[in-house]
Known about the structure:
By secondary structure, the chain is mostly helical. The protein is 59% helix and 5% strand. It has helices at residues 5-30, 32-35, 44-49, 57-62, 65-74, 94-105, and strands at 76-77, 83-85. Strands 1-2 form a two-stranded antiparallel ribbon. 16% of the residues are buried.
Amino acid sequence: MKLTPLIAALFVGATVSASAAEAPATYAKNCAACHGKDGAGQTKAGKQLDAKDFTDAAYQKSYTDAQAFTDIKNGLKDKSGKQLMKPFAEKLTDDEIKTLIAYVRTLQK
């Protein structure tokens, strides 16, 4: 069966929409323990690791999608090499990371 460009575009759009719909669950499973359900980073682990406050509009504005993508994919370490956030490259696809970033943007107040 040959897909026309319109049908192919609809299929891709449906896939992205499905991933976007799953973003809150992905966040809850992988991010909320540190960043908090609301994104403020006020969990016990978040306070210990100085997790960023995703509800802060100034922080959201200063933090690009490209930076977020790299940090989620590769993880974060402090200057001494201590791991602050594990990498998710083996756990999340690039598309899942992108939809996760879009979801995190909705946490801004």
